[in-house]
Design a protein that fits this description.
Distance between the termini: 6 Å
CATH superfamily of the largest domain: Phage minor tail protein U
Oligomer: single chain
Strand content: 35-45%
Strand order of the largest sheet: 1-2-3-12-11
Shape: globular
Number of domains: 2
CATH class of the largest domain: Alpha Beta
Number of helices: 3
CATH architecture of the largest domain: 2-Layer Sandwich
């Protein structure tokens, strides 16, 4: 194990800076820091923002007469945005899944509920028509849905295909490009989900994550609009294991 000289908050900051996409594409520079965001002194163009704070740290010995220590650390990650700031993110060629005529996968689902859908493709070829439906209950039954038309539910992100297309495109990969409009509570909830997803999927292998181990999500808490500061805030508490903080093994 490499000797890790920087603290756990700095490790997580470096990692998230490489993995998260800034939805405020009009700015440049960093937006993720190892401290709580300076809400009062920053203008609207500096948001959204993510701050990382060490809440607690404890340790125990790795063995009798062993000076090496196993530390348990709890980090708080705050996703903060200002009221009435609206940003859009385009999800490009998301891998939705594989269409199948033998397994019940004719209803595939997007990772996020879309605001607008640019395309849905089967093996790279776009469906001729994409129809947005408010809810799943407004879907046409697959047998009566015209071929080369796909329906997308605004409320769930579910996709609905005709039975003819399910048969014709059996085994083909479905992808989609669509747009998310993110504002207020929805914006910070989205960022918090992205933080945890990045940690959960990459902690074992990512080079910037070296030193932090075994993440556990303790809580993901919504803090409604703070009227005095005009901010929305979503707070994650995540525990990690480290060995010999600032030294490594």
């Amino acid at each position: 194990m490499t000797k890790i000289k920087i603290g756990p908050d700095e490790i997580l900051t470096n990692f998230l800076r490489t993995k998260l996409t800034d939805i405020n594409s009009s700015r440049s520079g960093q937006w993720i820091y190892p401290d709580f965001p300076r809400v009062k002194s920053l203008g609207d163009t500096s948001f959204p923002r993510i701050g990382i704070t060490i809440l607690s740290e404890g340790s125990d010995s790795l063995g009798i007469f062993d000076d090496n220590q196993r530390h348990e650390i709890t980090l708080q990650i705050d996703c903060v945005t200002k009221k009435d700031l609206l940003f859009s993110r385009t999800i490009t060629d998301e891998a939705v899944g594989t269409i199948s005529s033998t397994v019940n996968t004719n209803r595939l689902v997007l990772d996020f509920r879309p605001t607008t859908v640019t395309n849905v493709k089967h093996n790279g070829t776009g469906f001729g028509t994409v129809n947005i439906k408010a809810t799943d209950t407004l879907f046409t039954t697959p047998a009566s849905l015209t071929a080369d038309i796909v329906e997308v539910s605004f409320s769930t992100g579910n996709l609905n295909f005709s039975s003819a297309d399910v048969t014709s495109y059996d085994g083909e990969a479905i992808t989609s490009t669509y747009v998310l409009a993110l504002e207020g509570k929805k914006q910070v909830q989205y960022l918090a989900r992205e933080v945890w997803k990045a940690i959960r999927n990459n902690w074992r292998t990512h080079s910037d994550f070296e030193g932090l181990h075994y993440p556990i999500l303790i809580s993901n808490t919504s803090n409604p609009l703070d009227e005095s500061l005009d901010i929305y805030r979503q707070t994650l508490e995540i525990s990690f294991v480290m060995y010999n903080i600032g030294e490594g093994l």
